[in-house]
What we know:
Catalytic activity (chains A, B): Release of a C-terminal amino acid with broad specificity, except for -Pro
EC number (chains A, B): 3.4.17.19
CATH class of the largest domain in chain A: Mainly Alpha
Oligomer: homodimer
GO molecular function, one term (chains A, B): metallocarboxypeptidase activity
Cofactor (chains A, B): Zn(2+)
Low-confidence stretches of chain A: none
Amino acid sequence: xxxxxxxxxxxxxxxxxxxxxxxxxxxxxxxxxxxxxxxxxxxxxxxxxxxxxxxxxxxxxxxxxxxxxxxxxxxxxxxxxxxxxxxxxxxxxxxxxxxxxxxxxxxxxxxxxxxxxxxxxxxxxxxxxxxxxxxxxxxxxxxxxxxxxxxxxxxxxxxxxxxxxxxxxxxxxxxxxxxxxxxxxxxxxxxxxxxxxxxxxxxxxxxxxxxxxxxxxxxxxxxxxxxxxxxxxxxxxxxxxxxxxxxxxxxxxxxxxxxxxxxxxxxxxxxxxxxxxxxxxxxxxxxxxxxxxxxxxxxxxxxxxxxxxxxxxxxxxxxxxxxxxxxxxxxxxxxxxxxxxxxxxxxxxxxxxxxxxxxxxxxxxxxxxxxxxxxxxxxxxxxxxxxxxxxxxxxxxxxxxxxxxxxxxxxxxxxxxxxxxxxxxxxxxxxxxxxxxxxxxxxxxxxxxxxxxxxxxxxxxxxxxxxxxxxxxxxxxxxxxxxxxxxxxxxxxxxxxxxxxxxx
Amino acid sequence: xxxxxxxxxxxxxxxxxxxxxxxxxxxxxxxxxxxxxxxxxxxxxxxxxxxxxxxxxxxxxxxxxxxxxxxxxxxxxxxxxxxxxxxxxxxxxxxxxxxxxxxxxxxxxxxxxxxxxxxxxxxxxxxxxxxxxxxxxxxxxxxxxxxxxxxxxxxxxxxxxxxxxxxxxxxxxxxxxxxxxxxxxxxxxxxxxxxxxxxxxxxxxxxxxxxxxxxxxxxxxxxxxxxxxxxxxxxxxxxxxxxxxxxxxxxxxxxxxxxxxxxxxxxxxxxxxxxxxxxxxxxxxxxxxxxxxxxxxxxxxxxxxxxxxxxxxxxxxxxxxxxxxxxxxxxxxxxxxxxxxxxxxxxxxxxxxxxxxxxxxxxxxxxxxxxxxxxxxxxxxxxxxxxxxxxxxxxxxxxxxxxxxxxxxxxxxxxxxxxxxxxxxxxxxxxxxxxxxxxxxxxxxxxxxxxxxxxxxxxxxxxxxxxxxxxxxxxxxxxxxxxxxxxxxxxxxxxxxxxxxxxx
Lengths: 504, 504
């Protein structure tokens, strides 16, 4: 087949740009809905989102795109392409094959099912009535299994789902890393719970002025290096980050009157996501490679800034004075007390409220259950008992009802099976990168103590941010640290930190 | 030709819904850019707007749409359609024919030309250098003449342009109404200028707290009947209103520290636009008829609320106390002084700063010049002299340079010839409707004096808002007032109001 390479490449790049533009437009519509769009506009807005999504899907699955991909994939052409175009071709092929394998009718049914299921989940969660949600969950599992059949099972059926969120990761790999993690963290959490040296957190529960909280959030964002000319900070019920383009990355936070740390660490968390999206290489902009490479790597950046930096002693040695100034008379405690209070570890039922140590156990429970569903055929009916049993085993507590148990997360109602592991992968990637950072920037904690955070941002830009989706997660972590993913780094980090805080 | 009516109608309605969804999405993108989108995202955002606009244009000009229109236009089918579908067919046909007559290449050249021209206009306005802008204006006039040739000249060539903003209006009609207006307003403005009873406005020039201004704007919006569950109020450099759907109508304002009236009347003005868009009939929602019927009728609503109601004596008898409370010690003047100060009439050079009387003269000047350009072949080179001569003749003042003269408005740089008359049409429609309102709701000023404004909103909903684009401007004004557009109502209103204020 003879093709005009330049012409095909141009058509292909143009299509990629169009897909990216639709993603940006849809991103604005979602951001807008979550940050204050008027209630009565929801129906019309949902319709507009549907119309744009359909067109985006049509652009992604067009026969013409398939033909351009086939043409560009010929080795004698592919080898002459630059690294960005090569990667664009392989990434687009992956998405294309996945999308075209789903019959549009099946896809539509699934979209309707999951959007209905989400509202039934909300009701079920409110009343703790799992039985009312169970039939929906059963159907979603059935559809997901159909998709796995159409896409083809990888090493295991569950691997097919994992790959959507963390390209390349497998059940075998997760068994290895989560196994190592669980083995060490369960006894560590137990030792912490038994320690007589529990931090005092009572002073955190006061009425903290919202405007002062806002001021401090903005101040910390500037300190970390968030570019306010390429982003903004707003409020929403559920905090999130969205990268519309490198020049427009938006984060939100939620200010609680009675908890000064919630918005604070939430803001730092979302800032980590934002730094990633703001600092992607110029030549990737306007392409579908201009975003984080995986949920796990993205989460590594939010958790690195929130926990490794934001909950560190040097950080508060530098910034506690600024916080005290904004809340006169409210934080008259030694900085060490504040540091310990923001690093309390305790087994709890709710994932999103968990500390940085037990959080991983919440994830491992979900991972093990998802694996049972897709690899062993466990059904929706069996989940509550399974859930409660694992909470008792790993965290030593049992939910008193399903609302604070198996019903707590939105993910499954939206069909997002395979997503949960990203959170713990993020923690592990972050700890492993930190070890390298400390070697390559030996005075890093001295810099944090002086409030000089930009060298850290620059290091991460050099190692992670700039590449966007140009490198896979495995390529990144190996290139940065010289090793594949290893849970021991997270174990070491947590042991070191909490043995000190709890005087174990 | 045999067609399945139901099937074609369904396809047609679906396409209309898609077009409307694209309009909503683009509306959100524009609103977002003007209310705080980060600077560095502009380039990417402009690209996204371009991609979506192209797709919207494709949906509007598709051959399939032309075929559906032809099928539905067959009398034996058209006559069986409901009034909404009939009107949708005729309105869509009008837009379709206009759009498909322009070769895409010519359209693209024009889009590039006008977007370049706007930045050259900005520079020229800054330096007052008309010569640097003149070649662009010449080209835009040339392109506009090409479009008139392609669309076909109506009664006069300029009529073709007028019809885009005010369907059905003609040069003959405007000559009649503007002639009547000019004849009466020029001597009235002169008499006002000569009056020894000039209002004192010095107390308006103070430092007014922005938060208090914001509070009052929100309060007044609630009083008038703006639905905050179907809209929101934000800030932008140039205030505007945008109706994304009836459930999501957004207005913006601009708070000036040294002028408490700017944001106040600006907010009321935009609220008038918003009430129109929020109160369109349910069965028009999601269609392209779900918006104001013309720029002139739209402007009649913003000006009715801003000037007829908002600058009336009963309105301030009711609300001045609320305003005084928000600015303690700053507005210790009798309400009559405040009323007169907000109704100062004085000839000035800048249209957007003009009072409600001389404003019309600014418009008549622009109308007469546009008519000369398209009906008499006057060129860009002749405009500054023409402009200055007319300002001297109608307003008794001559611009000292082109920045405050012929270069002041953005409209021509964007090719919006034919738009200016809408503003004065709005004033005339508003005055004519007011006369009917006073007859049908005899206690209307008593209600205003008591702050009971909702009956006025309800009357306008009944007469104007509900119909969206279902009625033409001429149909509306005749149905409401029993007469076609008559400038005498505006003349009477202005004479009555200002003879009182200036004791003529």
